[in-house]
Amino acid sequence: MNRSIIVSSVLHLILIMITALSLPFLTKKPIDLPPIVSVELIQISDKTNIPFAPKAKKIIEKIKEKEKKLVSEQAPPKKVKKVKPDSVPMPDDKLKKVEKIKEDKQNPEKIDNEIKQVSEFEKKELFDPNNIAALIDKSKIESAETINKTDKITQDQQKNIDISGLTLSEEDALKAQIFGCWSIPLGLPYNEDLLVRIKLQLNPDGTVSQSEILDHARMNKPGQGFYKVLAESALRAVKLCQPLRVPTTGYEKWKELQLNFDAREMLEG
Amino acid sequence: MKKILSIIFLFVILPLKVSALIEVDITRGNLNPLPIAVSPLSIDENSKKSFEKILNKKNIGSEISLVVEKNLKISGLFNPLNKDAFLQSPDIANLKPRFEDWNLIKAQALITGKVNFIDNKLRVEFRLWDILAGKEMMALAFTTVPNNWRRVGHIITDKVYERLTGEKGYFDTRIIYVAEEGPKTRRIKKLAIMDQDGANNKFLTLGNELVLTPRFNPTSQMVTYLSYFRNLPRVYLLDIETGMQEVVGDFPGMTFAPRFSPDGKKIIMSFAKDGNSDIYTMDLENRIVEKITNHPSIDTSPSYSPDGKYICFNSDRSGYQQIYIMKKDGSNVKRISFGRGLYGTPVWSPRGDLIAFTKLHKGKFYIGVMRTDGSGERLLTENFYQEAPSWSPNGRVLIFYRETKTDDKGEGFSAKLWSIDLTGYNERQVNTPTDASDPSWSSLLSN
After folding, report:
1. Which one in A129, B3, B83, B442 has a CA-CA gap of 20 to 30 Å to A115?
2. What ipTM did this prediction achieve?
3. Using an 8 Å Cβ cutoff, are B238 and B192 in contact?
4. Choosing among A88, A197, A238, A256, which should be mutated to test the B contact, i.e. which has the most B CBs within 10 A?
């Protein structure tokens, strides 16, 4: 018994020795690290910014300009200041702007080029090979459009469904109908508050059972004669449009509807 | 716990969603003319006979409604419906219109009325109805001498226009202009006046002297104009109501385009002194002349802003004729036109928001408008030769004159008055018995 224990121990020791001696990391020499070389960092863009070929430079500048323009177009609409009747805008403030417009007019070829360039980019952006399947499959048209649209639009759509209770297409149909019925009184002072809010009670077939001007008190205020004219034109539009193009389902959601008639955009032109 | 949350959801969140009022923003509409029915004014037999004797008109009620209808049509904002389609007779419609009948012919507004002969006077009642709302919008009555029947038509139009568009009308107004006759090289030019629709034309001078640039006083029926007496330019004042005329002054050299200040107390004009054309004002009470611009260039065609604080004029100080504005004392001169071509005859709108001008570019003449800071230039009409725009008192329509080319034989020349509204679509010729130029629109007569 003792003998076998001794033999086993010896053999284990031999095995451990062989293993230890044969492992590579135990025999590896330490790595010789190279000496640290200091490197000075210098600004070289001034020297390496080699000018593009004249044509290429022009194209890049045009694209940059166009990008700037696009940004300015997407900016939120400027709030219109109420202009006092006795104040006359002097040309000082807008002189630079006017000169810019003039430059554009005097270089129609330049503008033409820009437009062509942009349209090509737009085509590229609009074409998304991943959407081919969706385009072929008509049942997926809506989802394909959603993919192309920005996140913001998607959120808006969501908001419309959740808050207004009308989908974008339902709202658009209603708007288009009322646009056609509303004859805007052209003589209104466009620098005034031209918003008329009308609350409607609707029947299931889209006819109006009751209409109420929410700022009714303003109609008889002195100096607000234009508001009365505008409110009456809005009421005429609602009556002329009856029955309104409302969804066929979900009456409970739209049986009460508020229309905000705002003439500023049209009158400022 | 889940149950409690579900109950909270049901009682708090869901009711909020259901009660949210749907809001839809309507930011666009149509600019189509409003369909309006102008029912002939009803008249009883006795009144009809009395007016027939005095005015030689068979049915004065129909005549007045025709004036109203024509005015509304030329405004471009209304579409008067054909009378043949009317289902209700005028006398019944005036009492209580059957709105369904008028709705059937797509009328959105209706004018009815009644004419009476009372104490040798003409009494006209009229009512404006909102067909869709089924209610009366306005009811007024006028009494005047029978000869004034056309003016009653114009006043009714002004009231209807104001009620339905939100701005004052321009129908009860007159236009003064230079009537021209004879071959182009030997034109006889007379001062003439007419209603804005071309009726009641009268010649105010005989044509012995050359007359130019008549301009109405914005506050009264006074006119200033330029006439050459023994080859010397003279500025005259003429009171249309009384026919009284007076000479404001003789001015040396070329004198141009006298025009009233908004309060009617001054006239502003340009004349050449020592070979240099500058802008001057004259106080009509004390006749003191004040020099406003002092520049070696040619400064002409001054026009005040409606508040009287600024003056617009044209000058070639930049090398080409362009439009400038300055303060009323001549300080702070700013150029506002920067487009290609030459700009002239600037006239400030009575609303104060726009300046009308004539533009010459590539051999063509344009009438256009721009904002007072020079932005938003819009050319309304283009032609071989046209100039001298004058604003209607509400600042919505411009009247100007247009000349045609002469042919190879030197014939075919004509000069006519035209009007165009700010949309640029409603362009019409204003009928005059002779050729006409240099029109000026009066303020409303019935202020």
Report:
1. A129
2. 0.75
3. no
4. A88
